Known about the structure:
By secondary structure, the chain is of the alpha+beta class. It has one domain: Deoxyribonuclease I, Chain A, CATH 3.60.10.10. It contains 6 helices and 14 strands. The strands form 3 sheets. Strands 3-4-2-1-14-13 form a 6-stranded mixed β-sheet. Helix 3 runs parallel beside helix 4. The protein starts with a strand and ends with a strand. The model has no long low-confidence stretch (mean pLDDT 96). The protein binds one DNA strand through loops.
Amino acid sequence: MRIATWNVNSIKQRVGHLTAFLDDAKPDVVCLQELKCQDEAFPRAEIEAAGYAVETLGQKAYNGVALLVRAPLTLSEIRRGLPGDDTDEQARYIEALVSGEDVTPVRVAAIYLPNGNPVDSPKYPYKLAFLERLRLHARALMAAEEAIVLAGDYNVIPEPEDAADPAAWTRDALFLPQTRAAFRALLAEGFTEALRACDPRAGIYTFWDYQAGCWNRNAGIRIDHLLLSPQAADRLVSVSVQKHLRGLEKPSDHVPVTAELA
DNA sequence: ATGACCTAACTTTTAGGA
């Protein structure tokens, strides 16, 4: 089962790139972030025409996440929103069980973690609180001993080798020690970071800022991750980063990361 | 040269992103 995560930075702007990716890479499951539109405006028809079922959690202008699954696989047990704060109205979490004939089910979540900048604003405590809510929910899911994939834009640079210029990020919400510690605490619930389980090399990035020629000089960071429960990690075959999509016309600033499970 | 962007919105300027 091939599971991809991609922050598309507006689904309406990127639907052409997305359907090309679906036709080319043929992922079984896709976790999307930053839809930047409400559910009524989501380009459902184009994606269904490509052979995928769709579940969305949209929001006007900001955030927004979705799960796509390639027929004949199906999505069930949909959860919209992360538990732990009934006042949180930001569309950042959607989860479902992916099943099909002759397929061991996998529970998959699409996550858009808060950016958290500026760090002296309420946005940073919100980010840390979201990470802690995610850890507690992940712990609860883990109790079922299922294959689980928590995939998305974590807005966390885990280690210095995940940034072209780590010194530039030392005071940024994506790389502060407290941010990295919270991400490690999530991993410590028993999750394996899929890419690092397959490839230890420095300099693998998933995001390049539109500004300052970051793409042309490969000034990237690695912030899009797939976290696997032990039952999912046991099935991990390979991970790839679809870097070429950053070089298209009108690209997202993120590229997909895809994990292949047996 | 440390410059340089993109998106949505009750749009002509701002907020948010990372």
